[in-house]
Write a structure and sequence with these properties.
- This protein is α+β, with helices and mostly antiparallel strands.
- The chain is 45% helix and 24% strand.
- The protein has 27 helices and 27 strands.
- The strands form five sheets. The chain has an eight-stranded mixed β-barrel with strand order 18-19-21-22-23-24-25-26, surrounded by four helices. Strands 2-1-5-4-3 form a five-stranded antiparallel β-sheet, sandwiched between helices. It has a five-stranded antiparallel β-sheet with strand order 7-6-10-9-8, sandwiched between helices.
- Strand 12 and strand 13 form a beta hairpin.
- Helix 12 runs antiparallel to helix 13 and helix 13 packs across helix 14.
- The longest helix is centred in the first third of the chain and has 30 residues.
- The chain is elongated, with a radius of gyration of 58 Å.
- The N and C termini lie far apart (161 Å).
- The protein binds ligand C2E and calcium ion (2 copies).
- Ligand C2E binds next to strand 19, helix 17, helix 18 and strand 23.
- The site of ligand C2E has 24 residues, from strand 19, helix 17, helix 18 and strand 23.
């Protein structure tokens, strides 16, 4: 407490009130001056005081009691106690901030301070001081406090997020000299990187110590590039992790660099575990590769498939260049493969195919592309620059290896291979694609007796063109129903009576000429048109026989040649229903091969249906096929038709006679009747009759005849349609 013992209180107060310099200075600073005399209760305040609170400059308007009332109730006690302490001489200095209600009702913050002039009895003679409007400061302070609290909340929230994120967050710093440090890193980083927090605290470089060496080799340059170009940094790398079963984890670090004022660089980023992702990606990539492999390879042999070969051929053909060497393609088809399948089972067949695939791989060079393009069909696309001669050598090598007997479960598998070779060098003189050329050569090799190598030639090409033309004509002819039935009589070997007729197809061209089956059947077979021809012939026969009925000719029986394909036609039996209704017997002539090739049993079911309908089954061309007689007898035919190649020599050779005799013997013992085809001379007829043949068919009686000719022939030979005698 300042001791101003000499000055009387009132004098001091007066001095405050009147010293103009102090007054001006305080008013300019917006500071109010005040004084109070405890003894007298006299008080004074400078005009600024009234200004602050918005009152007139009148002490009475704002007496001490009055303004003490205006103190905010929360502040009143504190403010009054502090003032009382000063007035009571308990302190020398008075300081208080409190709110006062201004005249307009608003609260003003007042920062008040004061001191005392003391008397001898230690009680103040006068207290005086200053008061300032600190409302704005208080507001600013409150705002700052609020901002600080918000900032703290944000910081806390971010910290919690950062610490609880599975990704590690970090700041990585590198100064101009290349010294690195880690100003910030979340705790999870230690676990991810497999390092102890203490180690990192000691030396920031510890975060790199578990990284795989080869990945670390990428890390340095990646950081440097990011630093130099200020490009985001992103890298996947592996770290050794003793805590994991695999011993390592895949991490991905991503960060964004920022250049500091001092030339250093600071990255902000994250590190997270991408092991599952990397593994899944690897799995997907593997699956993709696998699928691509499956799509382009044959599942059984593992060889590239047809699609792969086509892709390869396409690739080659796009490399268009005048001096590009021609491509050489070899097609390989197994002979008698079906026989292996049929007799030894499909597992044996599969083993043969795998064996052939191995042989192909062994017999070809690494630049040759071997593929399996069909059931028992393979291809070798010779390496670039190889010649037809090279292909022949390869074919010979394959043949030689295939010559070594192959056993499956102790049983020998007998099969061979035919080869067709074509080269795109021919592409300059003929049109078409390599595959069909090689195919044509293969077809030729097969037709010429199997186990052969055939090279595509000009003649072959012409043959193909001719066949194509013919195929188109056949299709047209089917549409125009230009195929018509011819009839060849069948007579009883004993009575010479007409017992029936075989229906044989002829193609009647627009000019009236007649084309025999051997001119169109092979091509019709290739384009699978035979069943369609059979159907046309059968339908037209219905109309013809209906006509004969009205003319009084009643045939005892009709034989139709039924192709394998036709046996898959559900309407087959219905198509001959009319004959049966008219009392004309019907038989189907089937080739031995049909019964052997039949795999799905549909043909056998159709045969059963036919039999149920009263249709008899005849085995055509018997004695020439490869089938065992037992196999044929399984369908228990009604008739065996002895092929004309067998009947041809019965007069001349004993051997022929013996063979035919034994067939007749077996047939008779099984109750099967026999028909001999190709009977041309009375001598043949005599021998065959003696051997036990039942029915004859051949030029000796008549050639196949057109409907009108047959009608005439029947009349001339005294056949009127009387009920047939049993042969
Ligand atoms: P295939 O069924 O063996 O018919 C008998 C063939 O022998 C007929 O030839 C016939 O003209 C001929 N031929 C008959 N008698 C004699 C003879 O004494 N001496 C000689 N050298 N030949 C004789 P075609 O009519 O040319 O028929 C040939 C083959 O065409 C038939 O042989 C048959 O396999 C097939 N074919 C004919 N027509 C049809 C048909 O409508 N459908 C089916 N799927 N095949 C048919
Ligand atoms: Ca026949
Ligand atoms: Ca025949």
């Amino acid at each position: 407490m300042s001791k101003v013992a000499s000055a009387s209180s009132n004098e001091f107060s007066d001095f405050l009130k009147t010293d103009m310099r102090i007054r001006s200075a305080t008013e300019a600073a917006n500071v109010a001056l005040w004084s109070y005399c405890p003894d007298t209760g006299e008080n004074w305040a400078s005009s600024t005081w009234f200004d602050i609170l918005g009152y007139d400059h009148d002490v009475n308007a704002l007496s001490l009691e009055r303004w003490l009332d205006l103190i905010h109730e929360d502040d009143a006690q504190m403010a009054q106690r502090a003032f009382a302490d000063l007035v009571d001489g308990k302190t020398d200095i008075y300081r208080a901030d409190f709110r006062l209600r201004a005249r307009d009702g608003s609260w003003r913050w007042i920062g008040a301070s004061g001191t005392a002039v003391e008397r001898a009895d230690d009680r103040p003679a006068i207290v005086y001081g200053m008061a300032m409007d600190i409302t704005e400061r208080k507001k600013t302070e409150a705002k700052l406090a609020q901002t600080a609290r918000t900032a703290e909340r944000h910081r806390e929230r971010l910290f919690r997020l950062a610490e609880n994120s599975p990704a590690a967050l970090f700041e990585f710093h590198m100064d101009r000299e290349g010294t690195v440090s880690l100003p910030y890193m979340t705790t999870v980083a230690h676990a991810l990187l497999g390092v102890a927090a203490d180690d990192v605290a000691e030396d920031g470089l510890a975060v790199f110590k578990n990284i795989f060496e080869e990945d670390m080799a990428k890390m340095g340059p990646a950081i440097e590039e990011s630093r130099a170009k200020l490009k985001p940094f992103k890298l996947r790398y592996r770290v050794h992790r003793a805590d994991l079963e695999s011993g390592y984890a895949w991490l991905q670090a991503s960060s964004v660099p920022r250049r500091e004022e001092d030339g250093g660089t600071l990255w902000f980023g994250s590190i997270y575990d991408v092991t599952t992702e990397v593994e899944r990606e690897a799995l997907l990539a593997h699956a993709r590769d696998n699928m691509r492999h499956l799509a382009l390879h044959d599942g059984l042999t593992g060889l590239p498939n047809r699609r792969r070969l086509d892709e390869h051929l396409k690739e080659r053909s796009t490399q268009h260049s005048a001096d590009r060497p021609p491509d050489v393609l070899m097609r390989i088809d197994l002979d008698r493969f079906k026989y292996v399948n049929d007799t030894l089972g499909h597992a044996a067949g599969d083993a043969v195919l795998c064996h052939v695939a191995r042989v192909l791989s062994l017999s070809t060079g690494t630049d040759d592309l071997c593929s399996r393009v069909g059931g028992d069909e393979f291809c070798v696309l010779m390496g670039t620059g190889k010649s037809v001669e090279d292909a022949r050598v390869t074919a010979a090598a394959i043949e030689e290896r295939l010559g070594t007997p192959f056993f499956y479960e102790g049983k020998i598998c007998r099969f061979g291979a035919s080869f067709g070779i074509a080269t795109s060098a021919q592409g300059s003189i003929v049109t078409g694609d390599l595959m069909s050329f090689a195919d044509a050569a293969l077809y030729e090799a097969k037709a010429a007796g199997r186990g052969r190598v055939e090279v595509f030639s000009r003649q072959l090409h012409d043959g193909i063109l001719e066949n194509r033309r013919l195929a188109a004509e056949i299709e047209g002819a089917i549409e125009n129903r230009a195929f018509e039935p011819f009839f060849q009589p069948q007579v009883s070997a004993h009575s010479g009576d007409l017992v029936g007729a075989e229906v044989l197809a002829r193609w009647r061209r627009a000019d009236g000429s007649v084309v025999p089956p051997d001119k169109f059947m092979p091509v019709a077979e290739q384009i699978r048109a035979v069943p369609l021809i059979d159907r046309v012939v059968m339908e037209r026969t219905v109309a013809i026989v209906d006509g004969w009925r009205s003319e009084g000719l009643m045939l005892p029986k009709l034989s139709f040649n039924v192709s394998a394909g036709r046996l898959h036609d559900k309407t087959l039996v219905a198509a001959v229903r009319d004959f049966l209704d008219w009392g004309v017997k019907v038989s189907f002539e089937l080739l031995e091969s049909i019964l052997l090739e039949e795999e799905d049993g549909v043909a056998r079911r159709t045969i059963e249906l036919a039999r149920d309908a009263g249709i008899s089954i005849e085995i055509d061309d018997f004695g020439t096929g490869h089938a065992s007689i037992l196999g044929v007898l399984e369908v228990s035919p009604d008739v065996l038709k002895i092929d004309r190649r067998l009947t041809a020599n019965v007069v001349e050779t004993q051997q022929s006679r013996d063979l035919v005799a034994s067939i007749f013997g077996i047939a008779k013992s099984l109750g099967i009747r026999t028909t001999a085809e190709g009977v041309e001379t009375p001598m043949q007829a005599d021998v065959l009759r003696q051997l036990g043949c039942d029915v004859f068919q051949g030029y000796l009686y008549a050639k196949p005849l057109a409907a009108a000719d047959f009608f005439q022939w029947a009349g001339e030979n005294g056949f009127s349609g009387a009920a047939p005698r049993n042969p």
